[in-house]
Amino acid sequence: MKTTCQSEFKKIKTVFVKDVEAAWINAEMVEKQWEELNFLNEPNIAIAKVEYQLFESLLKKQGAVIQHFPKDEAVTMDSIYCRDAAIATDNGMIICNMGKPARMNEPEAEYKTFLEHGIKILGRIRTPGTVEGGDVAWLDEKTLAVGHTYRTNDEGIEQLKKLLNPTGVEVISFSLPHYKGITDVFHLMSIVSPVDKDLAVVYSPLMPISLRNELKNRGYSLVEVPAQEFESMGCNVLAIAPRKCLIVKGNPITKSLLEKAGCEVFEYDGKEISVKGGGGPTCLTRPILREG
């Protein structure tokens, strides 16, 4: 069966994750780092481990082959949100350059792991360019949307284009609003998650008009996340397969809207591993191959 890296919604075949034990190490590390990394509150590592085990088991039950990023003393507890350090393409991985200074060592750590697994590298985003994986989303196999944010700058976007345009991929950029400012995590995928070729979960109040129009012009129907479920990451939805979605528990309206749109929805408890650190199921995973 055909496979692709260039999709957000086809059935996941292989995915990298970094579990709590590898990313957070111990309670002492969490106590030392959580505040300076802008977590909402100090996570309880014991509860977080239980949450993560259940999260990973949901992926396994859906047939995903899971690979693990290892412990690395050079990175922080933010590394649990492993999507951000790399972008998967059919021509190899693009190693990102992080816009959050505290995460600057994560791309090199993931690069080493990809090499160990024999995964091809297409290129790197280099200083002064910055790109974080949470700011990119495949609209289809030949179109990559990228958010211009405090984490992804113009130079990084230009480097993305130079890497991907020769492979036949169009990179379309969209400027996101200031929202909570430079210290907050506000990525493109905070406001849009494609879950099928013609269905996306969105938070329209913070969407650039050009992005919303782009989706509509491409024939997407939009599941509109309500305001009361934005901060609880109702818009951060991982498509395990077309219209088969994984969301953080605590977003009942969004869940109901997804089901009305014909989606099967799986929930996980994510108070510690997701809500406190601002990273939902898309952030916790770095899908590599999906069924084409």
How would you describe this structure to a colleague?
- With 292 residues, the protein is an alpha/beta fold.
- Helices cover 25% and strands 26% of the residues.
- The protein has helices at residues 20-24, 27-33, 45-61, 106-116, 154-164, 209-217, 252-260, 271-275, and strands at 3-4, 12-17, 65-68, 86-89, 92-95, 121-124, 136-140, 143-148, 170-175, 192-196, 199-202, 221-224, 238-241, 244-248, 264-268, 285-291.
- The strands form 5 sheets. Strands 1-16-2-3 form a 4-stranded mixed sheet, with helices on one face. It has a 3-stranded mixed sheet with strand order 4-5-6, sandwiched between helices.
- The longest helix is centred in the N-terminal third of the chain and has 17 residues, at 45-61.
- It is globular.
